[in-house]
């Protein structure tokens, strides 16, 4: 808590830079939000996705997303919309490209067009999902703890989400439904760590009545620090495995959570509690009220 001012300034700078980047550069939206063409092809043997991606990139389809669909012999290719080219013409060009230098030609199973309106609806629904989840969390923590805790938790969570999204904007990574799912998972992870710390602070407020609010918060954070570190490290091990072994499709999902877990752990220590302290949180806010007449009942 003694370093809270440095941490708050650092986080404020990161948040402002992230917001500026998002406002200026925006996101590189994936086909889920922009619309485009879905092409499902089949092979007799398991397909080599790396070769397919390199082939499509060489033939001018650098924005194509290639992934297995169901089995190793079924491949789903997603392409962003191209002006003046119909879905039928686009699928024919893709099929010609992937069959040009292969001994085993692929067969087209289906071709579907996803319109921009569908992409707009998905973007709106995704934003509403984050908004509603944040409101529900705010209400729950205010009811379960105290409204100052609730505001502190929301500030910490918004910090994690904005900084992570700012990273995507700066690096120009593709933002699709997989990334949106990772952001929602990040909200849950960040809040889980914050609530663990808050719960210990509440217990110590009632048990350590002779100490200051800052000292109680320090003690609570230190007591939960080993649990926080062990949880974060084990989650990071899983995410690193997903990033290196999960394939191209899940890379961005793993990137969101890798940075999100780091910032979520950081914010639960340096943002959530200091934010509640700045709002004037004190042990009196969480004292159990004495029932009327209880003092009379306790007299000898």
Question: What's the short story on this structure?
Answer:
By secondary structure, the chain is α+β, with helices and mostly antiparallel strands. 66% of the residues lie in helices and 11% in strands. It contains 11 helices and 6 strands.
Write a structural description.
The model is unreliable at 294-298 (pLDDT under 50). α5 packs antiparallel against α6, α7 (177-207) runs antiparallel to α8 (213-245) and α8 runs antiparallel to α9. The strands form two sheets. The protein has a four-stranded antiparallel β-sheet. The longest helix is centred in the last third of the chain and has 33 residues, at 213-245. The protein contains eleven helices and six strands. It is 66% helix and 11% strand. The protein has 300 residues and is of the alpha+beta class. The chain is elongated, with a radius of gyration of 25 Å. The chain starts with a helix and ends with a helix.
Question: How is this fold's topology laid out?
Answer:
Blueprint: H1 4-25, E1 28-29, H2 31-34, E2 36-42, H3 49-58, E3 65-69, E4 71-79, H4 87-98, E5 107-114, H5 116-144, H6 147-171, E6 174-175, H7 177-207, H8 213-245, H9 251-270, H10 272-278, H11 294-297
Parallel strand pairs: 1-6
Antiparallel strand pairs: 2-4, 2-5, 3-4
């Amino acid at each position: 808590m003694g370093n809270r001012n440095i941490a708050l300034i650092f986080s404020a700078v990161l948040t402002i830079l992230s917001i500026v980047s998002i406002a200026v550069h925006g996101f590189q939206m994936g086909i889920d939000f922009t619309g485009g063409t879905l092409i499902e092809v089949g092979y007799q043997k398991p397909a080599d996705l790396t070769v397919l991606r390199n082939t499509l990139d060489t033939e001018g389809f650098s924005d194509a997303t290639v992934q297995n669909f169901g089995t190793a012999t079924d491949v789903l290719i997603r392409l962003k919309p191209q002006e003046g080219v119909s879905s039928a013409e686009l699928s024919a060009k893709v099929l010609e490209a992937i069959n040009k230098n292969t001994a085993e030609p692929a067969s087209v199973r289906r071709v579907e067009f996803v319109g921009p309106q569908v992409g707009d609806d998905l973007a709106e629904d995704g934003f509403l999902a984050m908004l509603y989840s944040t409101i529900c969390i705010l209400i729950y923590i205010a009811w379960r703890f105290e409204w100052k805790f609730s505001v502190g938790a929301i500030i910490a969570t918004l910090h994690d989400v904005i900084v992570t999204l700012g990273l995507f904007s700066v690096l120009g990574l593709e933002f699709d439904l997989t990334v949106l799912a990772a952001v929602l998972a990040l909200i849950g992870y960040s809040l889980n760590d914050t609530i663990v710390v808050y719960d210990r602070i509440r217990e110590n407020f009632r048990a350590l009545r002779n100490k200051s609010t800052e000292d109680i918060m320090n003690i609570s954070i230190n007591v939960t620090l080993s649990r926080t570190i062990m949880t974060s490290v084990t989650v990071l091990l899983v995410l690193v495995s997903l990033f290196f072994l999960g394939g191209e499709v899940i890379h961005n999902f793993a990137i969101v959570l890798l940075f999100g877990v780091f910032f979520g752990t950081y914010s639960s220590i340096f943002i959530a509690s200091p934010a509640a302290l700045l709002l004037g949180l004190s042990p009196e806010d969480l004292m159990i009220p004495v029932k009327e007449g209880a003092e009379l009942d306790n007299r000898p």
